[in-house]
Write a structure and sequence with these properties.
The complex is a heterotrimer of chains A (405), B (284) and C (1099). Chain A is mostly helical and 405 residues long. Chain A has helices at residues 2-26, 41-64, 75-96, 105-108, 115-145, 150-160, 168-201, 214-237, 243-278, 281-292, 296-317, 322-348, 356-359, 373-396. With 284 residues, chain B is an alpha+beta fold. In chain B, a hairpin with a 5-residue loop joins strand 4 (147-149) and strand 5 (155-157). The longest helix of chain B has 21 residues, at 2-22. Chain C has 1099 residues and is an alpha/beta fold. Chain C has 31 helices and 50 strands. In chain C, strands 9-8-30-31-32-4-5-48-49 form a nine-stranded mixed β-sheet. Chain C has a six-stranded mixed beta barrel with strand order 41-47-42-46-43-50. In chain C, helix 13 (384-397) crosses helix 18, helix 13 packs parallel to helix 20 (564-577) and helix 21 (664-673) crosses helix 23 (697-703). Classes of the chains: A mainly alpha (405), B alpha+beta (284), C alpha/beta (1099). At the B-C interface, helix 4, helix 5, strand 2, strand 3 and helix 8 of B face strand 3, helix 2, helix 3, helix 12 and helix 30 of C. The complex binds ligand MGD (2 copies), iron/sulfur cluster (5 copies) and molybdenum atom. One iron/sulfur cluster (SF4) binds at residues 80, 85-91, 110, 125, 127, 241-243, 245-246 of chain B.
């Protein structure tokens, strides 16, 4: 079984590498988005991953800021998940740039008015914060693991950066540091993820995005999807010792996820219904596309059915079954991508001028978009890299509170 | 002349630095402007214009007149008379040829609509260049300040600075920005043709976009043919306009043809309600 | 040239082909070698942020420099606008309008403007003109001679050396023994086809054939007289079929001056065949030939000393859009097509915005012009003549015509009234027993004496007396004789004359017109046209409310019907009623500087001295024996059926066209039917009858048959829909690489001669002819054949002593000199100054010696050299803006009689019915077949009237190569009214097949196994008359780079972008009588485009 999974991963990774090769050789030529639907799968993936990251982080803060004991065991894992998904997000968006080699300019240009610039700065801060915080929370374990032999030990030794003092005093101090970091992290995560919402929300040209609800919707979405992802991880990857405790934890997380999901749907309902009732053509157009356009199934089947109805059913019918909760959570986490796609694409797929489509035609001047194979390949690369990082971390770092610790 | 301009350049650079150093509070609120980078360029002695009448020569003379002034005192505007537009798209193609635009990049499409019901029908043609908005939503969103409003009102994209994130594309209410995917019209034919590999003269530079170089990978848009203005010439879509429907000039010059044209009740601007303050006017 | 030369000359390159990259957006895998690095990611960019805050210009705008500019002439469509080709690094990168040309700048620059000053001024240009770069730099262009390697149309080719191709064509033989089925086919070469080489003998035979026609000589006598030479004739029993030379047929599509002179010299003057035919009738045939009939003059035939109607010009009039106040555009599309979107649209839109101009459009389709019109009247196709007669009726009834003008019967009367033209409205006409206007009443018929006149022979000075029988008008019941060209005695006549003289009914032409117009009430006319009667009245009132500044401007929508001739005549007659010819804002004709060099001038001054003046180079002159072609041509346009020896009662086997010429649709089908004789070799230059003709598919069958067309050679720039059937394709230079003298169009009031000249290095292979290196092109091909055959008029002393014709420029530079000289003494252009000479050389640095050789040119031009430069530096010669007008009149005048009644037409017989053609405007319903019977396909359920039109974005078969234009309109549609769509259950975007009674399958059968369905998308609109559906011209290609070909064993795949949309010409109606040709207008020759009834079948 394991071999099979590794094999699958290997194949996926190699195929994904083809996507990277294509991206390097052909630039954006193999991508399916164009000059009108100017953002595609990768941007959607980016907000998806960033959402997961923010969600995971905010959950971790329950432990480190609010000291929620019952979740303590997933604290480190949450942080690490946040780190990995953040990395995936950044990788996705980096590939999306027209000039990847110029990403650094964002740091040197001081574009104060740009939501996107703020985003980048905030991620960077957040990334650093995540690294530091993760390090602090792992420090005791790292020090402990330093004595181990083999790779784990070597890695742990390296990562201690020469620190070996894990006296209670030091740990107390660390705890305060962690709390401080986590506390700073909350507004940061809220800011940047709400900010991602704002990144879209401020665009007056796109009525579909131009809603004050967007930042909040993004946050709630982040929590729901991030929470779901963690729940799934905990449900499926947790070491099988302490079964009861594990089941209890999963059940709790399932409840949280359910709550967040329901709240998210509520907000979505608000968005859609208000737009449809208002029925200002330019405003509804995007929603109509989402609901009844060529990709109606993304909303109805992927999002609503697989990401809504089914998980809610699972979570309410078998709230304490680890596998049911895990499956529901995995479904929510995975299908949330559809929400992200439905945020990015429909807004852009609505012509700003009637007749623009035939004024000058080109494959790039269409209001039709579906990701190309190349885009999927590259996405596969990002996901396989994420899985690898997670797996390596999961296996080599002291992320999970085992009995031993 | 030269030294004076050099000075202005120097001070422009200082102003710019000041704006950075003073920080967001100051720089943030105002529409971002950059002073004339190379006033000297536009004030080089240009060959005389021929004698003659007609709107084109008149506008070109007015353009030369405007070039005598410092950049920040010019206010370029475009006026498109929809009664005269014959829907030929010569401007669309003239612009593409002039700026060497690749597939998927178009600065001035002409949008056509049919109005009315048989037999009382008509057709309307609306050319849509970049509006060079005075309050351009595309500018503040840029994370690297690659796009900004020049003192003469033109919204420019610095291809060397642009990272190709395409955020500005989403922000423009006029779909005036398109992305250069690095493609060519003669892709997938027996041979790439020389007109496609010849560098673009935009912004008075030479942009060789082969091998993924800028502006491939950048967002591009109409820039009122700055390179032609510098050479004392009207934008390509103005000179090529088959209906003689496109006018161009300096709004600050009260004797200019464009100033004359927009002082009429039949003037509108597109999507004015967005607060963009377009600098392209339409006559109905 | 560095850019492409290496590839062009590469051994296996047939077109400029390096490597074909196969990559699809979604499927490309690593290793797309040619693509590597194209989109390469740069991990670190070197620009520093500080510098990046603004873009400092770093280069001069080199396209504003006169050294990078060559002025030439567009040929993306036939408007022939002046262009300014801008060169960067040796290649054309941008094309703008030429500011010296009145086509492309309003108002245009004074001719004397320095090109240095003009450099920064760009003129306007339509999108097709801009996209011309892509026609020249087309990846599918041919650079080497292709020879057929499979069956005709199979699309298999080999490349062969130029000289070999020439050798094979000239000498013939078993040229296609490598093709299955043709192993034993011996092809007669041109040398053998050109049987009659003795010009003197030809001249005699020609005269005797004319005598046979006049019944002055019998065929038997002819045969005895020429018993030794009968083998030179196609058929000794029918000497009037002419010599075997006639079995060589040269046809062309778009041909202008220069190349036209070359072709005519080669085909007629040297080869000696009568068969040189253009494409006029597919274009606007009946416009030209009605113009011809209306401009016939009563001239003295100096040989016979008899007056005849002759000298009619193949031309027509258009409205002066610059000054007009009211124009009715009928079946004319000045914003999208016509001549053209540039010069007309600019003037119309200005007139509109200024309030000067108001216009109406009569067109079943809401054209872009109609969208700006004061009134759009969606007329029923084919009823244009009825509409004009309705207007005529109202104008006459309400006395809104220019009575004074119409009463002028001769030149003197016209002149006293300040008119330069006059018409025969008042002239008296005899009505025959059947009530038909038969001909003019003449003085001798009412007992008046003939006028005695003398012709003094210029050469001998001999005086030759002759008589002139005067025409007559009635003035208050009294008959007044007159000479139409009399400049002294002004004669005016009454308009409404209807009387009887000696038992013969006599009417004035005007009266006859009135009777035609009043044969129906306005309401009845309105009913026929599908227009409201009150609209007709409003239109007529407006038309007659602007004095002479109103015009009815007509084009293909009027002429390309079976009744085209009479539609055109009715509208031109309407213009006559307000006498707007030669008036500013009225009807204008084209005027050009003559490049032919034929103009000469001699005068005696009062002091007795003589001045003599002539253009420097009469290039029509032939050193050596000029051939005298004679005999009936293959399209039967140069003879009267009844006079010939093949007269065989009515109907004739195929129609004859005694009133027209260049009957494009007749050439190939006539050869197919071997009527009047079979042909042996067909050359086609820059034409594509298969694609262009209505029912062009009928030509495929014949072209694919090697027995009907034994040798088929084309000159083309790509493998087109027609050249795909050729035996040999000779690559030509595109319009940016070559010469032509583009002439003018009727709406252009200035006297001009735009010159097309090489602006970019030729892309075709270099070849050697007459010892000279030159690019492969039409010139090289014809010169090489002439060299091989030793034809007169080519090579040494071809233009007269010391004037060789070894290469294109030997002809063209001389023609430029003629233009520089002008048509009259004192019209010479100035000399180019030193600076301009330098500029001339500098701006041609990128041209190789094969097309630009200043020393040689200078030698040719001699003392005219600097003037030649002056002209070429401006792209031709254009009169100044102010010289277009002469007060309220046009400066360049038609200036003579216009026939409201055409005696010559009225005396010419329809070869199918044996009845004479009407001589005055009349309404003939459409469509009629060749026998004059109605074609009533609607009875078989074909209820939609299928028409066609141009989009401004495309030109005929020729813009499939222009990717920018394809982006503007990637595919055409079948446009139809919402009401029809609803009725037929069709929706916007529905796919339909176009079928008609003569193509019920709705296909193009390519006769190579492939059948292309005529399937297109429906576009549902409001702006078209219900019951009418239309498709635009230019899409639906299967060749021209859209289909694939195998060359030297390698498959060259087509580009699917070039083949989108639908071309429904094969659905246009085949004449049920002739069966292999479209419907035609037998009077004016038009191929019929708009009289087909069709069905749209959902697919
Ligand atoms: N459906 C429809 N059909 C129409 C019309 C319409 O309105 N509707 N209009 C008709 C009219 S008005 C016309 S004039 C005819 C025109 O019909 P034609 O004169 O027969 O053809 P063109 O389309 O001008 O193209 C001639 C061919 O010449 C070749 N060619 C292009 N450039 C060059 C060159 O530089 N040198 C040489 N040697 N060859 C070249 C190309 O293969 C091209 O296909 O089409 C007619 N056909
Ligand atoms: N864009 C473009 N311009 C061109 C050319 C080109 O190919 N493309 N070709 C050039 C050439 S060769 C020519 S001959 C000219 C042709 O120039 P035009 O004759 O002006 O153009 P067309 O579009 O062929 O036809 C004119 C109009 O007739 C209308 N029409 C069709 N059927 C009927 C009818 O039965 N009755 C009436 N009243 N109207 C009808 C059509 O809708 C169209 O608007 O254009 C020249 N200019
Ligand atoms: S039209 Fe669009 S791109 Fe142009 S300035 Fe305004 S917002 Fe920016
Ligand atoms: S695409 Fe370029 S110009 Fe536009 S926002 Fe991004 S960096 Fe700025
Ligand atoms: S001003 Fe220049 S860049 Fe802008 S649309 Fe016109 S031609 Fe294009
Ligand atoms: S070139 Fe002029 S007339 Fe033609 S579409 Fe453009 S604006 Fe209109
Ligand atoms: S109207 Fe015809 S000739 Fe003139 S620029 Fe356009 S395509 Fe060329
Ligand atoms: Mo034509």
């Amino acid at each position: 079984m394991k071999k099979l999974l590794y094999g699958l991963w290997g194949v996926a990774f190699l195929v994904g590498l083809i996507g990277v090769g294509q991206r390097i050789l052909y630039g954006h030529q193999l991508a399916g988005y164009g000059s009108y639907v100017v953002w595609g799968l990768w941007v959607a993936a980016y907000i998806y991953f960033i959402g997961l990251s923010a969600g995971a982080f905010l959950l971790s803060s329950l432990v480190y800021v609010f000291g929620v004991k019952r979740l303590e065991k997933i604290g480190k894992l949450s942080l690490f998940t946040a780190l990995v998904t953040l990395f995936m997000a950044l990788l996705s968006i980096w590939f999306d740039l027209g000039h990847m080699g110029r990403f650094w300019k964002v740091y040197t240009s001081f574009a104060w008015e740009s939501m996107m610039a703020w985003m980048v700065w905030l991620y960077t801060a957040y990334f650093i914060l995540l690294l530091v915080e993760t390090w602090f929370v792992m420090k005791p374990d790292l020090v402990r693991w330093s004595s181990r032999t083999g790779f784990e030990g070597t890695l742990a030794r390296r990562l201690t950066f020469g620190q070996s003092d894990i006296s209670t005093a030091v740990l107390e101090k660390d705890k305060r540091t962690i709390k401080a970091l986590a506390t700073v992290g909350i507004p940061l995560a809220v800011a940047f993820h709400g900010g991602v919402g704002a990144l879209f929300g401020v665009i007056g040209a796109r009525p579909y995005w131009h809603s004050a609800l967007f930042p909040i919707l993004f946050l709630v979405g982040a929590l729901a999807s991030g929470g779901a992802l963690l729940t799934a991880i905990v449900a499926f990857f947790w070491p099988r010792d302490g079964k009861a405790e594990h089941e209890e934890l999963v059940a709790l997380m399932g409840k949280i996820t359910l709550g967040l999901l329901v709240f998210d749907f509520l907000l979505e309902w608000a968005e859609v219904s208000i737009a449809l009732w208002g029925s200002i053509p330019s405003h509804v157009a995007g929603f109509k596309l989402m609901l009844f356009g060529p990709y109606w199934w993304v909303f109805w089947i992927v999002h609503l059915l697989l990401g809504g109805v089914v998980p809610v059913a699972l979570l309410t019918l078998w709230p304490s079954s680890t596998s049911a909760v895990g499956t529901a959570a995995a479904l929510i986490a995975a299908t949330f991508m559809s929400v992200r796609l439905n945020i990015v694409i429909p807004a852009l797929a609505v012509p700003e001028f009637e007749g623009l489509i035939s004024a000058y035609t080109d494959a790039r001047l269409q209001f039709y978009y579906f990701p190309t194979l190349h885009e999927w390949l590259l996405m596969m690369f990002v996901v396989t890299v994420g899985i690898a990082l997670f797996n390596i971390g999961f296996r080599t770092l002291p992320l999970v509170q085992t009995k031993e610790s | 002349m030269r030294t004076k301009n050099a000075q202005r350049n120097g001070s422009a650079r200082r102003d710019f630095l000041k704006a950075i150093l003073v920080g967001p509070a100051l720089a943030g609120g105002l529409p971002r402007q950059v002073k004339d980078p190379e006033a000297a360029e536009t004030q080089r002695s240009l060959p005389d214009l021929p004698e003659g009448d007609g709107p084109i020569l008149r506008m070109q003379r007015e353009l030369r007149r405007a070039l005598q002034k410092p950049l920040e005192q010019r206010r370029w505007i475009m006026v498109i008379d929809l009664r005269k537009c014959v829907g030929c798209s010569a401007c669309t193609i003239g612009c593409i040829a002039e700026n060497r635009l690749p597939p998927g990049v178009v600065y001035r499409p002409v949008v056509e609509e049919e109005i009315g019901a048989y037999p009382h029908v008509t057709r309307r043609f609306t050319p849509r260049p970049c509006m060079q908005c005075d309050n351009p939503p595309c500018v503040p969103v840029c994370p690297v300040k690659a796009t900004y409003k020049r003192p003469d009102g033109i919204v420019e994209i610095n291809y060397e600075q642009c990272i190709g994130c395409r955020y500005c594309v989403t922000a423009c209410p006029y779909s005036a920005r398109t992305f250069d995917f690095g493609e060519n019209y003669t892709d997938r034919t027996p041979k790439r043709q020389p007109y496609e590999t010849s560098p673009s003269p935009e912004y008075g530079r030479s942009w060789d976009r082969t091998n993924g170089k800028s502006p491939a990978g950048n967002v591009r848009k109409c820039q009122f043919c700055i390179h032609r203005l510098n050479a004392g010439m009207l934008p390509a879509c103005v000179t090529t306009c088959v209906g003689l429907a496109t006018y161009f000039g300096d709004w600050n010059d009260h004797d200019s043809l464009v100033a004359e044209l927009i002082g009429k009740p039949n003037v509108i601007r597109l999507k004015e309600e967005m607060g963009t303050q377009p600098k392209v006017y339409y006559l109905l | 040239m560095a850019t492409d030369g290496d590839v062009v000359k590469g051994k296996e390159s047939w077109c400029r082909r390096v490597s074909r990259r196969k990559f699809l957006r979604t499927s490309a895998l690593l290793g797309g070698s040619a693509l590597v690095a194209r989109g390469a990611v740069r991990l670190l960019d070197s620009t520093s942020p500080a510098e990046a805050a603004y873009l400092v210009p770093t280069r001069d705008y080199d396209l504003a420099r006169p050294q990078n500019i060559i002025y030439s002439v567009c040929q993306q469509c036939n408007t022939q606008c002046g262009i300014k080709v801008k060169i960067h690094n040796g290649t054309a990168v941008k094309i703008d309008g030429n500011p010296f040309s009145p086509w492309t700048m309003v108002p245009h620059l004074a001719y004397r403007t320095s090109p240095f000053k003009a450099a920064a001024v760009d003129g306007l240009l339509c999108p097709k003109g801009q996209a011309g770069i892509q026609s020249a730099y087309d990846p599918y262009r041919l650079v080497k001679v292709l020879k057929r390697a499979g069956r005709r149309g199979e699309g298999k080719w080999i490349t062969i050396p130029f000289q070999q191709a020439i050798e094979e064509i000239v000498e013939g033989g078993f040229l296609f023994k490598h093709v299955a089925g043709e192993e034993t086919r011996n092809i007669e070469g041109l040398r053998s086809i050109r049987a009659l080489t003795d010009a003197k003998l030809a001249g005699e035979m020609s005269d005797d054939v004319a005598r046979i026609w006049k019944k002055e000589l019998t065929v038997a006598d002819f045969k005895t007289k020429y018993k030794d030479h009968l083998h030179l004739l196609i058929d000794p029993d029918h000497p009037d079929l002419g010599p075997k030379n006639n079995q060589f047929v040269f046809m062309w599509g778009r041909l202008k001056g220069g190349r036209g002179d070359l072709v005519s010299r080669f085909v007629k003057d040297s080869f000696g065949t009568v068969n040189a035919h253009g494409h006029t009738t597919v274009c606007q045939g009946s416009l030209y030939f009605t113009g011809k009939a209306m401009s016939e003059q009563y001239l003295l035939d100096e040989k016979e000393l008899k007056h005849k109607w002759a000298g009619g010009k193949k031309f027509y009039w258009q409205a002066d859009t610059e000054k007009s106040e009211f124009i009715i555009f009928v079946g004319a599309s000045p914003f999208e097509a016509n001549y053209g979107p540039t010069n007309r649209a600019s003037r119309i839109s200005t007139g509109l915005a200024d309030g000067r101009l108001k216009f109406a459009v009569l067109d079943p389709r809401l054209s872009k012009a109609a969208a700006r019109a004061w009134k759009w009247l969606p007329i029923k196709p084919g009823t244009e003549g009825a509409m004009a007669l309705a207007l005529i009726r109202w104008v006459i009834e309400n006395k809104r015509y220019d009575e004074k003008y119409l009463r002028n019967a001769n030149k003197a009367a016209a002149q006293t009234g300040g008119e330069s033209t006059w018409c025969n409205a008042a002239w008296l006409i005899k009505i025959d027993k059947d009530g038909r206007p038969a001909g003019f009443l003449r003085g001798s018929e009412v007992g008046l004496p003939k006028i005695k006149k003398v012709l003094s022979d210029k050469k001998s000075g001999k005086e030759r007396p002759y008589e002139f029988d005067p025409f007559l008008v009635a003035v208050e019941g009294k008959l007044v004789p007159f000479d139409p060209y009399d400049e002294k005695n002004a004669v005016e006549g009454d308009l409404q004359v209807n009387t009887e003289i000696a038992g013969t009914r006599i009417k004035s032409a005007f009266r006859i017109l009135w009777e035609e117009a009043s044969s129906r009430s306005i309401e009845d006319w309105a009913e026929i046209c599908g227009i409201k009667a009150e609209d007709i009245v409003t239109l007529a009132r407006e038309f007659t409310s602007h004095g002479k500044k109103a015009a009815a401007d007509i084009h293909r929508g009027v002429s390309q019907h079976t009744n085209g001739f009479y539609n055109v005549l009715a509208w031109f007659t309407l213009n006559l009623l307000i006498g707007n010819y030669d008036w500013a804002g009225g009807m204008a004709q084209a005027s050009t500087y003559d490049p032919g060099g034929g103009k000469a001038f001699a005068a005696k001054l009062p002091d007795g001295s003589e001045i003599k003046w002539a253009q420097p180079f009469p290039v029509g002159r032939l050193g050596g024996d000029k051939a005298i072609p004679f005999g009936i041509d293959i399209i039967r346009a140069n003879a009267k059926y009844e006079e010939t020896t093949i007269f065989n009662g009515y109907p004739a086997r195929r129609p004859w066209f005694p009133l027209s010429s260049d009957v494009y649709q007749e050439i190939i089908p006539s050869a197919g039917d071997a009527y009047p004789y079979p042909i042996k070799a067909l050359f086609l230059y820059m034409g594509t009858p298969v694609y262009a003709l209505p029912a062009g598919h009928t030509n495929i069958e014949i072209l694919a048959d090697v027995n009907k067309i034994p040798l088929f050679v084309t000159s083309d720039i790509v493998i087109g829909e027609t050249s795909t059937y050729a035996d040999y394709i000779f690559p030509d230079c595109s319009y940016l690489e070559r010469w032509e003298f583009a002439g003018s169009h009727p709406n252009m009031v200035w006297k001009v001669q735009p010159i097309r000249q090489p602006a970019i290095a030729p892309l075709t292979e270099t070849v050697k002819v007459f010892g000279e290196e030159m690019p492969m092109a039409l010139e090289a091909m014809l010169l090489a054949i002439a060299e091989k055959m030793g034809l007169p008029g080519f090579g040494k002393d071809a233009f007269g002593e010391g004037k060789d014709f070894r290469r294109a420029e030997d002809l063209y530079v001389r023609m430029v000199a003629n233009i520089a000289a002008g048509d009259k003494p004192g019209q010479e252009v100035p000399d180019a100054d030193d600076q301009e000479v330098k500029l001339f050389l500098d701006s041609r640095k990128h041209l190789p010696r094969t097309v630009f050789d200043a020393e040689r040119w200078e030698r040719i031009a001699g003392t005219w050299w600097r003037k030649v430069i002056y002209v070429l530096n401006r792209g031709g010669r254009f009169d100044d803006y102010k010289d277009g007008y002469d007060g309220a009149q046009l400066k360049n005048k038609y200036g003579t009689l216009i026939n409201l009644f055409q005696e010559k037409t009225a005396k010419t017989k329809n070869s199918m019915t044996g009845k004479a053609f009407p001589g005055v405007a009349t309404y003939v319903p459409a469509p009629l077949d060749a026998l004059g019977r109605p074609v009533e396909d609607e009875k078989d359920g074909y209820t939609l009237n299928l028409i066609t039109y141009r989009e401004v974005f495309h030109t005929k078969s020729r813009t499939a190569a222009d990717y920018w234009l394809l982006a503007l309109l990637p595919e055409n549609s079948i446009i139809m009214n919402v009401r029809d769509a609803d009725r037929l259950g069709l929706r916007d975007g529905s796919w339909v097949r176009v079928v008609s009674a003569s193509n019920p399958e709705g296909i193009w059968d390519l006769k190579n196994g492939a059948k292309i369905p005529m399937v297109g998308k429906v576009k549902v609109i409001q702006g078209i008359r219900p019951g009418v559906v239309a498709f635009s011209l230019g899409h639906g290609h299967w060749a021209y780079g859209a289909g694939s070909a195998v060359i030297d064993g390698k498959r060259i795949a087509g580009d699917p972008r070039r083949g989108r949309g639908v071309h429904a010409n094969a659905a246009l109606r085949v004449d049920p009588v002739i069966e292999n040709t479209c419907l035609s207008d037998l009077t004016g020759g038009s191929a019929v485009f708009y009289d087909t009834k069709a069905k749209l079948v959902k697919v």
